[in-house]
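[job 4417] fold queue: 2 targets
>>> target A
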Amino acid sequence: MVRGSAISAVILICVFYTPGSLADQPLPVVLRGSLSLSDLPQGVQKRISPQMTREQIANMLRQQPSVTLQGATLTLQPPADERSIALAFDRVVLQDGSKVVTNGVNLELVAAQLSSDEGEITAFSAESIVPNPAPQRQDGVAGLNAGTVVLDTTLGPNKLFVRLNGMPGQPGGPGAPGPTGAPGTRGGDAADHLLDCAHGGGDGGPGAKGGTGGSGGKGGPGGSGGKLILEGPVASQRLLIDFVARGGQGGAGGSGGDGGQGGPGGDGGSGSTYCRGGRAGPTGPLGDPGPLGGPGQPGHDGSITAQ
């Protein structure tokens, strides 16, 4: 999983549709499999100026490529300049459950029309949603926020699924094991009379109980759910969007460290000419396990707005 603070980039999706002759429209580029931005046609990474009128935008989009994702997954990565990713198309078709995975990057997508056949825009892939626990004695890091998607388009005729759930927080790391208990005391040495044994060597004392294990690390807070902003024609098509943006779950607290090993028993006292030495003392008992770490706070739910 990715560590650190949430990504500040923004992804804006704008789709505009101007009716025209199909004969005048170029054939769409059909893409399949696992895709990145570099697999898209040249010229689609284009940001719309806020000063452009709707007519100017529509004219510009007619010159843009059309793309059909066919059972494909387009995965975005944070741009080096931490700006949003802006994509502009004539038409976009998400066929056979195709997905656009933002990875929490804010997205601006502009297109004349967007059609969906079980298509989905999602913040994170299923593989990235379950983070590995933090290292021993460390707290979990916060889950990534889902980011913002701005969608300006005409949808239809089927629903578009948008899942902008925050990433769960990382589970805390396990606590450190407790220290080994202190060794037992040494037994007293044997003593002789002039010609016989006065007393044998004493047995060593028992080792002390092992120390308590360390506390588990605290779970990281969950990332915030994303924001979906509808602009243009799609603002009146809310019923064609199946939207979920839950805050990520807080990471579970780490397990307490194991109790320390019991201390070794003390050595038995030495024997003498006529007496035997003492026996070593017993090993001390294991220490108690450490307490669990506290869970992380859940992230805030996202929102959908129409402008």
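>>> target B
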Amino acid sequence: MAVTGDNLRINGDRLWDSIHELAEIGPGIAGGSNRQTLTDDDKQGRELFQRWCTDAGMSMGLDQMGTMFARREGEEPGLDPVYIGSHLDTQPTGGRYDGVLGVLSGLEVIRTLNELGIKTRRPIVVVNWTNEEGARFAPAMLASGVFAGVHTLDYAYGRKDPDGKTFGDELKRIGWVGDELVGSRKMHSYFEYHIEQGPILEAENKTIGIVTAAMGQRWYELTFEGVESHAGPTPMNRRKDALPIVARHGGGRDRRSQVWHHDGPAELTGGVRHDRFEHRAIPKVDMQVDGAAKGDRVHRSVSGCDGGVQNIHALEEVHDLHGFAGIM
């Protein structure tokens, strides 16, 4: 069936209902989601998505990274497909729409085409990439990274979560490891519909925008050693505590923005932890830094720390580290 004239419209209510039905799997705080990759909740979410795709007449492909490829055949099956997708995994305190909108909107396109009896020339494939968030297994965009040749399969399988469980073992445990070689698929084009992760569109009263650049990212873990000691008998003028230095240099949002000056997001302190909880002892402190900037600016800003950033003593001289002076 050929349709001309007015733009085609999806069923917005159906898309909305699907998003919120999926959100019932792995509920998070404040109405959000906690469906981290390769968990039992992720498995259940995948099964629901697969059922929806089967109901829509699609065939399911699965690669060695567990990425799901739901295909609707075209009039010329030999042509490279058009891909639409994102991810279904979330952060521990994630929202209902991040990633999910991109996957389920692709499914809704298929449902609408089916209802209208429209056959496309090219096949359409709806994708659910595994571990795009990287909340459980760092780094983020792991499966798509293997697909693109940035990471090897062995590297991905060896990633460990905070409990020491490997990506490869957990992928097998939930039963979603496929036989398809990662990166073997051909693409004509790829579309990803994503909720904005910032305030710009809302502030400018706009409903949609087009991505014009990608943010370069560098992740670092800093260890502020300080001098461990007993909190009671050690005089303050002789203490070299790690935590006050972290608070001073990791919490100055305005100071960071002055050095990371450009027209986009800059840097985020991702997490702070100490090695033990003893209320009378002075611990060392670990801090994660997530740097993001357009192009290679983040690399230029922090490259002076490469090789020495993992162990930084909690002394006042910490601010003399080249490249990290502005971050902290």
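[job 4417] complete. Note on B: Residues 252-265, 295-328 have pLDDT under 50 and may be disordered.
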